[in-house]
Design goal:
Structural class: mainly alpha
Distance between the termini: 14 Å
Radius of gyration: 14 Å
Order of helices and strands: HHHH
Shape: globular
Strand content: under 5%
Largest sheet: none
Amino acid sequence: MEKTFRTNFSMLVVHMWLCLRRLKAEGKEGIELGQYVYEIYNHDLETRVSKAGVNLLLSKWMRELEKVFYGNIVAFDTAMLPEAKQDDLQNAIWK
């Protein structure tokens, strides 16, 4: 894979989804820890965007990245439903 902000972001989203999905299965404490992990992820993402030289548009970028993050999370979760096709998760990840 080409090492770009977009590919790094995509891999972070996949890893965050895996972590958050696992933590959610642990109940209330897992969900609380997941929120903490998500806040750390957001802080790290802000730093990465800032280092990429997007300082003036940081809040706009963060809103857009958050939409992409949640859109991917929904797509990944949908691909894990019992009625999903076998390759739905693979297709959602490589989208």
